[in-house]
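Chain A, query sequence.
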Amino acid sequence: MDIFSTHVLSKVVENLPTPSSFLLDTFFPNVQTSEKEEIYFDVTDSKPRITPFVSPLLPGKVVDNKGYTTKSFKPAYVKDKRRFDANIPFKRLAGEVIGGNLSNAQRYERALATTLQDQLENLTRREEVMAAEILRTGQTIVSGDGYPSTTVSFGRDASLTKALVGSNTWATSGVKPLDNLEDWASEIQNKAGVVAKTVVMDPDAWKIFRSNASVEKYLDYRRGTNNTLNADPITRGKDSKARYVGSIGDFDIYVYNDSYINDAGQTTNLLPSKTVILGSRDGLDGTRCYGAIHDEKANWTATRYFTKSWLEEDPSVRWLLLQAAPLVVPYRPNAVLCATIG
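Chain A, predicted structure.
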């Protein structure tokens, strides 16, 4: 069996552990593929109308049908290419006993699996970064070699990106964060028609929130009910960087702390300091979209990723390539709000 055949490579990747993707799993659970380069979807102009009153002796009143707008986005293309030289089978792998206890072939297969796992983790992390940008700003910026910097905006209402300053910050005495959450939830419901109950904070925002006098007083007053903040938070998933820290009223609160290395080589937090996201998990209708793969061996089909490998004879070098055309899309962008609380 050729372990570098496309079929085998795909199966190896599919059975590897999935890296942490809390924001994707929480707000973007749906998957959509397109055989074309563009992703198309319709946005309806839904308004909370009511049936008109008329006399039974008069003709019915004409009510206009709901309008809609068709939007399209072209996913950016990602390519992760790795070099496998002929010396790999002769080198001890990390974790292998001194002197080696694997055959050259076993060492080569182990190195292949490790490399493919890293490629898939990088792709998932790229999607998680897009999800974080969209939840915070309503848009994502795509740039790369041969790809001019492009801002993909999903048309979120500008008022749903907030920055509390001066005497309005959560660290200010007398400010009530719970009132903010209630007001923001009402704002989302008015603009998107959905109920927002999921709150995600970075660690700095969480520390300020939990120590706020009004929050402490509310929890003490409501002790014995379902309004609790956990002294021992629950970690979501084996590799999740998110902790469920409790609920107040019908708000479920999570603390999320994850980072990545940006294109400039700098460590960057997915959620900047003092960030609070409030959204509707189902109402956002978040979707991971994938366009067609630009490769004859992939038959130009749409899939989350396509892997392939080829060999150069002299000197002996094998290449591994993972390709994808991902775009994270909030079909109802006004179903989430982001605030910097101080």
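The chain is about 25% helix and 30% strand. The helical segments are 6-14, 22-27, 104-137, 177-192, 203-210, 213-221.
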